[in-house]
Specification:
Shape: elongated
Strand order of the largest sheet: 2-9-8-7-6-5-4-3
Radius of gyration: 25 Å
Order of helices and strands: EHEHEHEHEHEHEHEHEHEEEEHEEEEE
Bound molecules: pyridoxal-5'-phosphate
Number of helices: 10
CATH class of the largest domain: Alpha Beta
CATH architecture of the largest domain: Alpha-Beta Barrel
Largest sheet: 8 strands, parallel
Strand content: 25-35%
Structural class: alpha/beta
Number of domains: 2
Mean pLDDT: 93
Distance between the termini: 20 Å
Amino acid sequence: MPLTLRVDGDRWRAHLRRTAAAYDGVVPVTKGNGYGFGLVSLARRAEWLGADSGVDTVAAGMYEEVPGLLSRFTGDVLVMSPWRPFLAGPAADVMGNDRVLHTVGRLDDLAALAARRPGARVVVEVLTSMTRHGMGRHDLAAAAGLVRAGRLRLEGLALHLPLVGDREPEAEQWSAVLAASQLNTDTLWVSHLDPQQVARLRADRPGLRVRPRVGTALWLGDRGALQVQATVLDRHAVRRGQRVGYRQRPLPRAGHLMVIAGGTAHGVALEAPATAGTARQRAVALAKGGLESAGLAMSPFVIDGRQRWFIEPPHMQVSLVYVPAGAAVPDLGDEVDVRVRLTTTHVDRVELV
Ligand SMILES: *Cc1c(COP(=O)(O)O)cnc(C)c1O
């Protein structure tokens, strides 16, 4: 029951190449659902970018993802989720691998990592306004001491910046902190800066090696090269008031019930349904007798030029979608466009066309 991601291969590869060139030293982020492509596919693509554009490192989200990346990408793998002494399994398994760079965000963890594996390659993460992981600037002197004493190989300082706000001044402040610190590195790993911001940071501090970690802007930056489509699996004419679905709710109007590939297992329900938000919007919908007032939610499936309503919450692998009488209904086996966020969607198939 395929939900398919169709990729215009030439256009996508051109975008990847352009983005790698614009950033210079880009570290592709290969994590989670592989931004809709799958991790295996991204690892292979990163290897291609290595040969094509000099990419030498990829960034994994967590240790569980590392073995699959190491087997398909021949460069280094930075693990962005901080190493913790209590992480067993994959974290322990890749401990001895010199192609793995560990991120450490706490002084205690730095000491513990040095005790477990002297000589490990580490990136020290600092706590930005994101407030997720990392140590404060006043911990950096102690961190430098632990790195030396533990004979850890320091590979840089890492920042995770928010998506909004004054990211550039924050990155500048941290680069000044790094320069003034006793940490023996000139590498700054950053996120969420655009190519111009990275270029300015480099121009301001010629000694600084900036490594931008980029996921969305790289893999999904040219959305026009990517199209998600779902197969129409079944179709039924329905009457007004007819009870349908798991919930047997009566339909407010006549039309067609479409059974379309793509359900909760694909992440389709995670797409924030565009229901009327405010009380006023709901009142307007009610006055118009719209389907929102019947408790329906907007689906991401596009039929006859418009996104259509879910008849009920998506099933595990398919969705029931309402098409009003008068609209053109697709045939069985046809594919319809699906407007979904690729970072939360698991497609059945990726096709390069
Ligand atoms: C996911 C992630 C990134 C990349 O984020 P995008 O928005 O996909 O570019 C960078 N740094 C960290 C720490 C992340 O977790």
